[in-house]
């Protein structure tokens, strides 16, 4: 992973398209003109108004026939195949630059079976013909959630229709148009000629005259067993997660098909951060932006509020394939009607006044703007494509990527199996990736320096000859910690006797070279598993040149030659049993993404008995594992795709740079913003809870026949959810104390305080084979085990969903009800071998 020499070298790519609701066809000339204006693509209808009229006539005749003969069983009509008059599309060279739009006037959620049947036929005809023409991307109309008195009743039949459409267009990417939240007023806007208008009253829960039954009122039982009346008008509020809930039903029934995604409409007034975070975790293919999303700045130029800019940066930044942007009804392509007109391309070069932020609207103002359009301004803008130009401006002014984003470029949401360092010898490139992290090794340097200083200042007795402090690096790899130990000794002026232990034969060769060329033979090298090492050899024990596992050999060649001649003349000296000393400071980097998942406790069990029993120090001295439930649709889909060829895929904890996720359990923290918009509301912060911890210091050797039960762990953690959600798995992190006052952390809550910019570890992801749905105001209980059978270590995990319900009318007693339980995940088959 090569870093860019400068953050400015990175330029995000915005693919921007244009949509006009009244467009009937796209000619090559129109597409060329759009590209000259700096658009990347255009939308096209699949069928014409002629086809629309033909379908309306067919449906009207059928409904009239049903009404005139109510007792007769009349089969549903069949729409004849398309004719040249019914579609503007044809295969061609430009087809790949078009986004096809399914007719918005169909209603796949209609409770009227006649309307639904006709709508499904239209969908299937259009998808089949678009696939024939070579269309790669199709935009589906939003599911109509409000149908008379019904709410969300037709989502499952919408999902079924989409599933069938996916089977028809085997290679087409389908995006469902969805608003960020369920707004009944916005949902009531009908497309001209919509089939929904033909739905019969009896299927909508309406009276024959079209009014809602119960005079817009419903009955509800009160605590005394009586009834109270409330108005539906008062209950018609925003449902922030209403459209997400519908999307969840659709993609679940479609089995998380990787060709199904979201075309998300960005409103003028953004919902709470919890809503935008949820959509961030979903597969966003398109961001739909209308003229109402923009506000006029003081210069009269259309611009985004600061919060809209932040949202765009979050959705677009740091990923390999960001969503496309689609401008809806912001005006026709300039210059097409008059080819002689010269139109400059939207290059994103704006003056400071043109790029200035507009004032953020209040919720009431935003609601009015949804109906009336954007704020008016007396100033005119002499720009044929101001909305496009502004997006190009934002493209060139995206914040630079952080070091972590550059390091992990291309690895977001990429599943990797954890390392098995005890059974596998790592390749040099693996060591090299770890060594690119300066923060981790700077923290280790600080820890070793402070340990040496405290040892000297507290006048502790050292274990080495001449009062030198014995430092051992266990699992030296290519030597970065060895270098830090030598630097700490030089910086503090405190002499040390340094030992480096490494089992990897190939890495040991490099350690020998470093000792010769870089470390001036100041390091005693041992080729051994740290668990079987007997400890530092005392200096009074003679060692022959080339002694297995020790370096360097004697440097005096004459002495070696004389020793050879002497050995021929005299019998060799009687071998003396070697004596082994103690370690004062033990340094290791055995931590995994979940702290102990690479068997740091088991490895250190074998070497900690060599630690000075009075003053010995282990770096790190302790570490803890942390968990939180997450929504991760992309990761779940990737795991499910692996399962047919790898049955253990749903039971494997993966190391992954989490990106498109949503933390399900959060706590609100006050915002420092003084803005009047919703974004100034308290900021949700994830609840990340400690599962267990390990501490290391001097210890007695374990009996030969001892088990590993002392390293087993179990935790049962509770997480409260405010909003409905689907749990796809658990995100795991760790915190480690290298030495008091020096820490490492991957916990998002404090990593920027304890080890800012550290990038050596990605989080760990424990997947659920079957996602678990939890409603609003519910609780998730996580059970996780660290298990062993003395040959390997593995994890087992499960999640339960709970809800607090009123026990009975008038009782007021709350009853905790279990709503669902996940399957137990177990990594036993792929556990980490000891």
TrEMBL record:
> Which keywords appear in this protein's UniProt record, sorted alphabetically?
Methyltransferase, S-adenosyl-L-methionine, Transferase
Q: Where is this region: Disordered?
A: 350-386, 535-581
Recorded hits in InterPro entries, A to Z, give: Arg_MeTrfase, Arg_MeTrfase_PRMT5, PRMT5, PRMT5_C, PRMT5_TIM, SAM-dependent_MTases_sf
Gene3D superfamilies according to UniProt: Divalent-metal-dependent TIM barrel enzymes, Hnrnp arginine n-methyltransferase1, Vaccinia Virus protein VP39
Transmembrane regions: none
The residues covered by the PRMT5 oligomerisation domain are: 622-804
Q: Does the keyword Phosphoprotein apply?
A: no
UniProt record similarity statement: Belongs to the class I-like SAM-binding methyltransferase superfamily.
* Protein name listed in UniProt: Protein arginine N-methyltransferase
Source taxonomy lineage? Eukaryota, Fungi, Dikarya, Ascomycota, Pezizomycotina
């Amino acid at each position: 992973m090569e870093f860019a020499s400068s953050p400015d070298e990175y330029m995000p790519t915005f693919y921007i398209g244009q949509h006009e609701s009244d467009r009937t066809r796209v000619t090559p000339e129109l597409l060329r003109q759009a590209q000259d204006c700096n658009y990347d693509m255009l939308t096209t209808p699949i069928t014409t108004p002629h086809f629309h009229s033909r379908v309306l006539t067919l449906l009207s005749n059928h409904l009239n026939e049903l009404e005139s003969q109510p007792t007769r069983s009349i089969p549903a009509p069949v729409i004849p195949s398309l004719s040249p008059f019914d579609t503007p599309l044809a295969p061609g060279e430009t087809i790949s630059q078009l986004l096809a739009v399914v007719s918005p006037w169909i209603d796949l959620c209609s409770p009227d079976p006649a309307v639904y049947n006709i709508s499904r036929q239209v969908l299937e005809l259009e998808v089949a013909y678009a696939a024939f023409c070579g269309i790669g991307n199709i935009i589906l109309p939003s599911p109509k959630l409000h149908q008379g008195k019904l709410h969300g009743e037709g989502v499952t039949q919408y999902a079924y229709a989409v599933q069938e459409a996916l089977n028809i267009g085997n290679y087409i990417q389908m995006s469902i148009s969805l608003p960020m939240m369920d707004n009944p007023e916005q949902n009531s806007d009908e497309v001209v000629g919509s089939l929904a208008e033909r739905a019969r009253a009896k299927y909508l829960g309406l009276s024959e005259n079209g009014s809602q039954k119960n005079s817009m009122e419903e009955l509800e039982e009160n605590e005394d067993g009586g009834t109270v009346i409330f108005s539906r008008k008062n209950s018609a509020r925003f449902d922030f997660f209403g459209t997400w809930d519908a999307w969840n039903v659709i993609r679940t029934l479609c089995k998380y098909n990787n060709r199904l995604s979201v075309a998300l409409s960005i409103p003028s007034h953004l919902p709470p951060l919890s809503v935008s975070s949820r959509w961030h975790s979903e597969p966003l293919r398109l961001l739909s932006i209308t003229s109402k999303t923009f506000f006029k700045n003081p210069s009269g130029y259309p611009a985004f509020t600061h919060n809209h800019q932040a949202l765009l940066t979050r959705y677009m930044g740091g990923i390999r394939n960001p969503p496309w942007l689609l401008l809806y009804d912001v005006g026709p392509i300039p210059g097409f009607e008059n080819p002689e007109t010269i139109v400059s391309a939207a290059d994103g070069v704006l003056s400071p006044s043109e790029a200035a932020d507009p004032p953020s609207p209040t919720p009431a103002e935003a609601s009015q703007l949804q109906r009336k359009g954007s704020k008016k301004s007396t100033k005119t803008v002499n720009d044929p494509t101001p909305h496009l130009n502004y997006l190009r401006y934002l493209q060139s002014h995206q914040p630079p990527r952080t070091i972590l984003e550059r390091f992990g470029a291309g690895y977001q949401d990429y599943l990797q199996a954890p390392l098995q360092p005890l059974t596998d010898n790592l390749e040099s490139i693996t060591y090299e990736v770890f060594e690119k992290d300066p923060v981790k090794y700077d923290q280790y340097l600080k820890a070793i320096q402070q340990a040496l200083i405290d040892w000297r200042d507290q006048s502790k007795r050292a274990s080495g000859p001449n009062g030198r402090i014995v430092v051992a690096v266990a699992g030296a790899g290519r030597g970065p910690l060895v270098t830090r130990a030598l630097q700490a000794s030089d910086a503090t002026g405190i002499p040390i006797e340094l030992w480096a232990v490494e089992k990897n034969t190939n890495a040991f060769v490099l350690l020998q070279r470093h000792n010769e060329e870089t470390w001036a033979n100041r390091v005693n090298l041992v080729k051994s598993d740290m668990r079987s090492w007997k400890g530092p050899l005392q200096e009074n024990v003679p060692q022959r040149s080339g002694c297995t596992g020790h370096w360097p050999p004697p440097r005096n060649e004459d002495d070696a030659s004389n020793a050879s001649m002497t050995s021929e003349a005299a019998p060799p000296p009687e071998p003396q049993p070697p004596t082994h000393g103690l370690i004062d400071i033990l340094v290791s980097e055995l931590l995994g993404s979940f702290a102990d998942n690479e068997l740091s406790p088991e490895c250190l069990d074998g070497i900690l008995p060599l630690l000075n029993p009075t003053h010995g120090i282990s770096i790190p001295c302790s570490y803890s594992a942390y968990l939180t439930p997450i929504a991760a649709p992309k990761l779940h889909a990737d795991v499910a795709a692996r399962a047919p060829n790898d049955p253990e895929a749903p039971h494997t904890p993966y190391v992954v740079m989490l990106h498109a996720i949503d933390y399900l359990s959060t706590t609100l923290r006050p915002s420092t913003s003084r803005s009047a918009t919703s974004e100034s509301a308290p900021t949700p912060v994830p609840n990340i809870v400690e599962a267990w911890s390990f501490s290391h210091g001097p210890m007695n050797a374990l009996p030969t026949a001892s088990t590993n039960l002392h390293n087993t762990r179990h935790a049962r953690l509770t997480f409260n959810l405010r909003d409905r959600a689907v749990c796809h798995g658990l995100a795991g992190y760790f915190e480690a104390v290298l030495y008091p006052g020096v820490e490492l952390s991957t916990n998002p809550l404090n990593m920027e305080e304890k080890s800012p910019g550290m990038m050596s570890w990605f989080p760990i992801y424990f997947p659920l084979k079957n996602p678990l749905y939890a409603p609003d105001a519910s609780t998730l209980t996580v059970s996780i085990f660290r298990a062993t059978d003395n040959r390997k270590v593995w994890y087992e995990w499960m999640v339960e969903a709970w809800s607090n319900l009123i026990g009975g009318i008038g009782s007021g007693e709350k009853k905790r009800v279990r709503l669902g339980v996940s399957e137990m995940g177990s990594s036993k088959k792929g556990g980490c071998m000891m």
